[in-house]
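Treating backbone geometry as a discrete language has practical consequences that deserve illustration. The amino acid sequence and the backbone structure tokens for this protein are reproduced below.
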Amino acid sequence: MAPFLSAGAERRFPGAGTVEARFDIPCTGFSITVLFGPSGSGKTTILRMLAGLERLDAGRILCGDETWADADRGVHRPPQARRIGLLSQGYDLFPHLDVAANLAYGLPGLVPDERRARVAHLLALLDLQGLERRLPAQLSGGQRQRVALGRALARYPRLLLLDEPLSALDRPTQARLRRGLRDLLRHLDLPTVLVTHDRTEALQLGDRIVVMDGGRMCQAGPIREVFDRPSDPAVARILGVETVLLGRVVDARDGLATLAVGDVLLHAADPGGLGERAFLCIRGEDVLLERGDPGPSTARNRLRGWIRTLQPEGLLVRLTLDCGFPLESLVTRQACAELRLAEGEVVTALLKASALHLIPHD
């Protein structure tokens, strides 16, 4: 069966490189495909290519049995012919129009009664009833987001495009709205493409992910699979893996590999095909810390080290350890206080073999 959407296209910027859109959305119905990567990696350009706001320089974009764009044939469907809904970073609400008028703005082709009925439906769907006559300046950040989303949904799109929809909000509001946004999109049963560079947002909202860097796709697949098993060290760093090390493979048998990093030996699950050297990827949340002699544990790796730096990050604390190599750990503030962790203190880092992801050096 052909995918719901298939993109294999390029947009070229003289003197500034090329942005490639190469991914599929397998089927219609609810799913969120995340375009993830650092600023300048090409995520928003891809969204504009899908929306019809950028013309292709090569390749094509297909949606179902429709050709949205084909550079070789000179095909370019304008945005209004693609039935897409687009929500930008800044929401772009008209400040002089109230909520109802902002929702109705994209419905010029409907007669007044139909337009009023569509607006009433959106107000109920997005829990905006009672706010019809308020101006955008009189709304909270979450309310403005829902009005902008309602305007994107007003024409019943077949594909929804979200460009960093939470970036304009403060972090507490972002955290509060993430779950509600996914639940709402699931209710709408719409395939969605979401642009973000926020790891937490990607993990909480996405089903599939396309990792971007320098205008090209580095890895794509189910979101948990890609985050757990990045394909190369560059992808691992983009995905926020704190510790990426190059080690020498000294043994591999019975599903377990032993690698030397300097004078330190580390044990990890063997993916096969490692060769003489491999990269080790270690996430900070997988590094457990203990003071004194560690108690019983299933962790194969027990590394003595000392705390070089300690940096609070909201409810978490990020620690940089010297274990014969730099190793980062993320612990809760409560754990940090209970263990009386401080810079210069000696600790034991515990790492399960299954938590270490190995990437062949080749």
In short: Residues 171-188 form the longest helix (18 residues).
